[in-house]
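ZP: hey, is the magnesium ion complex queued? I don't see it on the tracker
AM: it wasn't, my bad. submitting now with these inputs:
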Amino acid sequence: MSEIDHKPRPSLSIVAPMYNEEGNVAAFVAAVETYVSPIGTPFEIILVDDGSSDGTWSQISEQSRLHPFVRGARLARNFGHQGALMAGLTEARGQAIVSMDGDLQHPPELIPELFARWREGYKVVNTQRADAEDTTFFKRATSRWFYGLFSRLTGVAMAPGNSDFRLLDRSAVDALRSMNDVDLFIRGSVSWLGFRSATLPYRAAKRFSGRTKYSLPKMLRFASGAILSFSLAPLRLGIWIGFMTSGLAVLEFVYILYRYEQGRTIAGWPSVMAFLSLMFGILFVLLGVIGTYLGKIFELLKNRPRFLIGERAGVSQD
Ligand code: UDP
Ligand code: MG
């Protein structure tokens, strides 16, 4: 509180998570500056190092020394893309906050357009990826399948090609931060918020440097976490299977009584055993599902932070 108050607060923040992206940091900052400074509004770039093991942090520190508009935050360990993004959104002080990947796959040329939409009054400006040629068939197919399943199970509309490249108004960021989901699935939460939104299409570019940080296990964890934190459908599924088998059991019982009436002995331990094991199977599936949700409640009770910042770089305002 002194001279700081006289500085204009940035009206635009650009947030990017960086995990082992040493080859991308400088290029990212340069590209963003090229497209953002002509807008003529005060801006800041927030780079979040998500526990990288390469030279990402020294690159970020270097950029923050070179440019007053670059600020860095280094997470205490690797918290994952969504945690890092949340850290960046929390650090950002702008009135409009753009989040994008740090590998230049999200074109910074689009930022002025996103900003223009925000000025028109949209609180959320989403982007829709038109598939790039180098997106693998596997990634495209799994993405389409996942978003279809997600929308059907949760009732939260989401189109394939949805990513975390978007602009959020300050009010949307604050609302997002107040959501207490165990598994972060920011694009789902944004859709759930339901603020006035627009969507801009873009073509994804090739990664500037390095390789993808989203391995298959990471993608699977991301997808199942998203569904578990947005939907109770798996739990209901168990209930319906339970009802169906109970109905089946009643029918079987009626059939056994009928055979008994006719004086015929009931043959077949095998069928009994089969039925028993079926019941046990269902029981175990249900137990697993309940256990999963209990685990979520447990995590929520612990109320652990979703990220921890170890250190910062750049001009310290506030
Ligand atoms: N990322 C991160 N933490 C992670 C994995 C990824 O911060 O644990 C960042 C990564 O540095 C990049 C963005 O998230 O800026 C998107 O990751 P990536 O490009 O590897 O995903 P893809 O584009 O292949 O889906
Ligand atoms: Mg990428």
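AM: back. The pocket of uridine-5'-diphosphate (ligand 1) is lined by residues 16-19, 21, 50, 78, 80-81, 84, 101-103, 105, 212-214 (CB under 6 Å).
ZP: great, adding it to the tracker
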